[in-house]
Prior knowledge:
The chain has 24 helices and 25 strands. It is an alpha/beta fold. The strands form 5 sheets. A 7-stranded mixed beta sheet has the order 6-7-4-3-2-5-8, with no helix packed on it. A 7-stranded parallel beta sheet has the order 13-14-12-15-18-11-19, sandwiched between helices. Helix 6 packs across helix 8 (224-249), helix 8 packs across helix 23 (663-676) and helix 8 (224-249) crosses helix 24 (681-688). The two termini are 46 Å apart. Magnesium ion binds at residues 308-309, 403-404, 561. Adenosine-5'-diphosphate binds at residues 273, 275-276, 279, 302, 304-310, 458, 563, 565, 592.
Amino acid sequence: MAEPVTLKTPVGALRGVGPRVEERLQNLGIRQVRDLLFHLPKRYIDRTRLVPIGSLRPGDSALCQGTVELVQASTGRRRTLLCRISDGTGALTLRFFHFTRAQQLGLQQGMTLRCWSQQLRRVNHTLEMIHPEYWRVETGAETALEQTLTPVYPLTQGLSQFKLRDLTGQALTTLGADATGLSELLPARLLQQYSLLKLEQALRYVHRPPAQADLASLEQGAHPAQQRLAFEELLAQHLSLRQLRKTAQAQASFAIDSNAQGRLSAFLEQLPFTLTRAQQRVLAELRADMLKPAPMLRLLQGDVGSGKTVVAACAALLVINSGYQVALMAPTELLADQHYHNIKQWFSPIDIPVTLLTGKQPRRTREAALAQLDSAQPMVAVGTHALFQEQVAFGNIGLVIIDEQHRFGVDQRLALLEKGANENRQAHQLIMTATPIPRTLAMTLFADLDISTIDQLPPGRQPVKTTVISNARREAVIKRIHEVCKQGRQAYWVCTLIENSEVLQLQAAEDVREYLAEQLTGLTVGLIHGRMKPAEKEAVMADFKAGATDLLVATTVIEVGVDVTNASLMIIENAERLGLSQLHQLRGRVGRGTQASACVLLYQTPLSDNARVRLNRMRETNDGFAIAQSDLELRGPGEILGTKQTGVPELHIADFVRDAHLVPRVQQAADVILSQCPEVVNPLVARWLNTKIDFGKV
Length: 698
Ligand code: ADP
Ligand code: MG
């Protein structure tokens, strides 16, 4: 006698699952019976009632029934089988291009057929179903209709709807029978307060909605049963991060010395500008955090060019004044190098050592930097990911700053906590995003972090004027570059390359440079791309910064952070290929000084509707927060946050855009659970999250 099926039973034990089906289910992430329950339909079809043929319209999907009036097969070059049925209200043609002889013989005049198809068409005044599903029904007999809406599941190669319907049916029978499996984890109080269905009810409903269910709301994912599940999933995501935060904050930190402001004032006085009100407010927030005995965990966001770097430098000074070290990590060598030079320039006059650590340095330079870090001397180390490699030992690290890293996922944040731990003390953390993050997204994805926002640009900035121009008119654009550079300004030309091969991309960028150099006699045209050695990139950037190059042709390596204030014109080729946040980042490379700047978005025709909307959005606004929100709506969170491996959690049911309205309630519910029933946190997180966070490690 076989073991009774429970939610934890491997799917291989179910009726009709052999090794082949098992493997295919695995491709869908389905291993246990419970995984089947969380594999939700993407749509539904209604086979619960018969629709009179006379009331059908082209485009409808419907189940109908009628008597066969005519069967006609044409052989020849285009084989077709036509079968005409009628139900007294109208007639309908079933059309098959692929059919067997048995199938043809099985259709006979006078028999009753029930058939279902999506997307009816009208051909020569007659309605047609192409390759419908059909069954023979005994004439006169009342054949039962389906009692529930029929689910349509996401599939993978080699698995049929029929199979999945059968398997989810089997899984549903274990619900309730298996008391240990899917227990209700949400406290009764919350279920009541938010009028939520019980988990089990919700699952039953979404797999087999009753005939009278609201199909439209189900198809939009807006039905209360689906929203109940989305709510629990978002809650689990949120709780996992809150848990992470709680664990980190339980550790002691490197509290800064409240009197140690001396060198900060000296630094602020020598700056060629004063901090904006927003910068001052954020700095005060950082200082207040770092005065506390628990580590700071903060996300600093601000639009491109809002001046995040200088605020980070001030925070670094507070920590150094208190006798600790600071690590500043940038996403690219180029940016690390730029920060190194800036900060060195700022900190050398006040006698603070600054060192650079990247993966591609000569060994001697690197070893000297490592020794300095190990010595525990208060200082700033600027670098790339190399900063966090195994061999790097910080003697005394009090603050870790991550720049331009909105793509900094939970796993990386965990690794960072480990690296920042030193004899049971935890370094403060400051993560600076390259792009503003829509509020709801931030509340879900960065629930472990406090958020500070610089919501003001330095004074005197003129908005970048953006134009959208067809590639066919690039001559006029080239003329414009000439004019701008003749006035002593500089320009960027960004190639967004089409080929996947790096070698071909490089070739294309070189071709563009050559072409532009020919067109722009008298101007110096430089080239920078991702395959250059760090030293080469540095040299190219140094030339551009010094004004020795007029026009810099670049691949998207310059996307984040690069700061050359004299550049006032940006051309982006094939702009229609890029997401809004990326375009905004690129555009942010100009308009960093006080002169008027412009951005030209060159596009290749024909332009898709979505691309047209996106490019127009860029023309309409310079507000990074508004742009991020549009990007989220038009292309989803992946666009803003990068792909899976870079930290957007994979959601089964919830959708960051569609379900954004749930977020405030999710937050409240998390507060209730954390304070009143913390024991459900772990089971909830384990139920929904694939990548288990090992809180014990931190
Ligand atoms: P982002 O926030 O995009 O990282 P940066 O920190 O690179 O911006 O700053 C952009 C530019 O603005 C830099 O040249 C910086 O020196 C300058 N800047 C920063 N703060 C101010 C300010 N308060 N007034 C004037 N210029 C400022
Ligand atoms: Mg920056």
